[in-house]
UniProtKB/TrEMBL annotation:
Pathway given in the UniProt record: Amino-acid biosynthesis; L-tryptophan biosynthesis; L-tryptophan from chorismate: step 4/5
Protein name: indole-3-glycerol-phosphate synthase
Enzyme kind, highest EC tier: lyase
PROSITE patterns hit by this protein: IGPS
UniProt-listed Enzyme Commission number(s): 4.1.1.48
Keyword Amino-acid biosynthesis: yes
Signal peptide region: none
InterPro entries: Aldolase_TIM (IPR013785), Indole-3-glycerol_P_synth (IPR045186), Indole-3-glycerol_P_synth_dom (IPR013798), Indole-3-GlycerolPSynthase_CS (IPR001468), RibuloseP-bd_barrel (IPR011060)
Reactions mediated catalytically: 1-(2-carboxyphenylamino)-1-deoxy-D-ribulose 5-phosphate + H(+) = (1S,2R)-1-C-(indol-3-yl)glycerol 3-phosphate + CO2 + H2O
GO biological-process terms attached to the record: L-tryptophan biosynthetic process
UniProt-listed Pfam families: IGPS
Segments forming domain Indole-3-glycerol phosphate synthase: 4-249
Taxonomic source organism: freshwater metagenome
């Protein structure tokens, strides 16, 4: 079983348990208390290379990340360091995340927030909206086309922007044909074995139609890499672990984006 398959299986079980504890109708009733809109897509369309700064507690490849850190501490540092948006990893079994982390980020930061998770069910979309997300991630490799199309439409109906993640040319062709998304994320990490190759962004970029907002994800940890991404036409990068290695993540952001010199911890 691949890493992705294992995560999807645990996600299906977790969603079923949450739905049993809080039925969809009761969850939807909480949508009326949703806060003001913070357009995620617009934040990435500003001039220059935007950074989506990610908070995550652990990962299957890296293990525990920044032990003892709090959401409040990290996301306020990200905002101070100039991030355009936040990504909050909410998957629990493999990444240690939660919707509480997302709601906390919403309460302490004015930046738009992406719910980073393995979305396979409408229930998760409503959860995201209730918790304060402005956007969700849909992973092409995790969904069959009918489910992908349905979730994309349902997210839009909930006023959630959608970052569509692809990993290879076949996935890119499929999502362009299915929904023609405005936001396309190229994951440099292979979710089957979690290997990373930044060249994936370069190889797929030429196949993305003009006018799309392109996000490069995973494996970016040097200023030179970001400069190269901006040079070839990438609009934004999603960075997590390398920023969390700094005593003050704001320093990491400023270093990667051309601010003052700093060293990771």
């Amino acid at each position: 079983m691949t890493v992705l398959a294992r995560i999807l299986a645990s996600t299906e079980q977790a969603v079923a348990q949450r739905r049993e504890q809080l039925p969809l109708a009761q969850l939807e009733a909480q949508l009326h208390g949703r806060g003001p809109d913070r357009p995620f897509a617009e934040a990435l369309a500003r001039p220059g290379l935007s950074v989506i700064a990610e908070f995550k507690r652990r990962s299957p490849s890296a293990g525990e990340i920044r032990p003892g850190s709090t959401v409040e501490e990290v996301v306020t540092a990200y905002e101070r360091g100039g991030a355009a948006a936040l990504s909050i990893l909410t998957e629990e079994a493999n990444f240690g995340g939660s919707l509480v982390d997302l709601a906390t980020a919403r309460s302490v930061s004015d930046l738009p927030i992406l719910r980073k998770d393995f979305i396979i069910d409408h229930y998760q979309l409503v959860e995201a909206a209730v918790a304060g997300a402005d956007a969700i991630l849909l992973i092409a490799a995790a969904l069959e086309r009918p489910e992908f199309e349905s979730l994309y439409r349902e997210a839009a109906a909930l006023d959630l922007d959608v970052l569509v993640e692809v990993h290879d040319e076949q996935e890119l062709d499929a999502v362009l044909e299915a929904v023609d998304p405005d936001l396309i994320g190229i994951n440099n990490r292979d979710l089957r074995d979690f290997s990373v190759d930044v060249e994936r962004t370069h190889s797929l970029l030429a196949d993305i139609p003009a006018g799309k907002t392109v996000v490069s994800e995973s494996g970016l940890h040097e200023r030179a890499q970001l400069e190269e991404m901006e040079r070839v036409g990438v609009d934004a990068v999603l960075i997590g672990a390398s920023l969390l290695a700094f005593p003050d993540p704001a320093d990491g952001l400023e270093l990667l984006t051309g601010g003052h010199d700093a060293e990771p911890g």
